[in-house]
Amino acid sequence: MADKTALVTGASSGFGLRISIALALRGYRVMAAMRDLGRGDELLREAERAGVASRLDPVRLDVTDAESIEAAMAHAARRYGRLDVLVNNAGFAVGGFAEEVPMDDWRAQMETNFFGVVAMSRAAIPLMRKQGGGTIIQLSSVSGRIAFPGYGAYAASKFAVEGFSESLRHELAPHGIRVVLVEPGAYRTAIWDKGFSGIRSRPDSPYRKTLEAVLEYSRRAAATSKDPREVAELVARLAECRAPRLRYAVGRGTKLTLFGKAALPWRWFEAIIQRTLSGKAGG
Length: 283
Known about the structure:
The protein is α/β, with parallel strands linked by helices. About 50% of the residues lie in helices and about 15% in strands. It has a 7-stranded parallel sheet, with helices on both faces. Strand 5, helix 5 and strand 6 form a beta-alpha-beta unit.
């Protein structure tokens, strides 16, 4: 295990920080990628506490910048000669109803959450194919399977990641490269705070009442959400799994919600979502 190498995008906080630590604890050399290396202090403190700071290699990488992606992959090839695991974690959430979210925000959402995943995957494939295998783990979301009102841009980006990854898994299987989707529900990460603070809405919005209900539900979910280390541990286990499934849903109520969508008539499921957001379905 000592010579195995991983690259984690968005490693300065949230899932990415914890995934980097979890992989390092399992013996990986971890390229902890982030847009601004000056924001890596928390990661380094956590790594020191866990005794794995020497296994981390912070690298500057912006998943929307082709040159920085190329430089990071060249660094992996030059310094380590291989890349065993790529974790596509970098992302953010745009909130707001479709009519009120500017097109620039839609494009920025897709550029990072979807095109960034495509670009990173494409850049890693040649090295993995040359070495005869590897694992690409995509941090998707339950929002890649179920779309809530007010998060259309975020859901669209994650639905796109799901379709891309399913196709990519078929393409890369003959080359020994595994593609896995991890689909978290609500966890205690900064993505929700950032998403709430950036909600797009007009003062006279015709959607204000529904948006307030959505935000209240989201805040309740975030307040009672689980520790993101659960997701990090799952990713670390999948990195070592020889025959992983395509999809792993994780988080309180996530599997039950997905089952409900698959098993119930759409109008029933839609009604449940509407009642949940209005606060009428318990809790």
